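Sample A.
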Amino acid sequence: LPYERKTQEGFDVNAKHLVKFACMPNPEELPADSVTLAFERATHPKLTKLITADELVHRQKALAMIDKLCSAPIEIAKFLDVGLVPALNEGATDKDPTVR
């Protein structure tokens, strides 16, 4: 006797699919002073721009993130391409010692 798998049809299949991929609650909001990475090619220009931002917390967090990302030579090259050195030169005159 050949075995033929019994297939579910209609409402049962749809209900099981909906249960499997049920709705999730919204993620928690990020703090207003958080610095997140942008998608793909926008990461490096975004962080470079944040070095000269008005908010002190953003400048500090952007520099910390740049420090973390610059562990790979390819990341350093990408930052240099978007103008990291002039931004760091401008940040060197900052009033905050952490940013300097």
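Sample B, a different protein:
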Amino acid sequence: MLFHSALPTFRKLYGKISGNFKNGNKLVFTVICNFEVSSFDGSKAIVISTLGEFGGKNPYLGVAYIVVGTVSLMFALLFLSKQIISPRMVADPSLLNWNL
């Protein structure tokens, strides 16, 4: 099943080639046409790129996940320490205020 992409140009990570490659090494690929792309004016291409520690070339999304996770963990610890130090009285009738 082929889904629509969010952007007009997209790349799909098909595989990962592990190894130490140097400038001038030759790589040979065999491309098999499993589906046609001419009916919607599409094209196929092979893009060889490097991946960083967090995935693609742009580490912004991985760094954003780590920052948001760290901030969330800090808030969770802050609220936990507040609850341990001065717990909230739940269902205490003296806390009800009937003056409108």
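Observation for Sample B: The chain has a mean pLDDT of 79.
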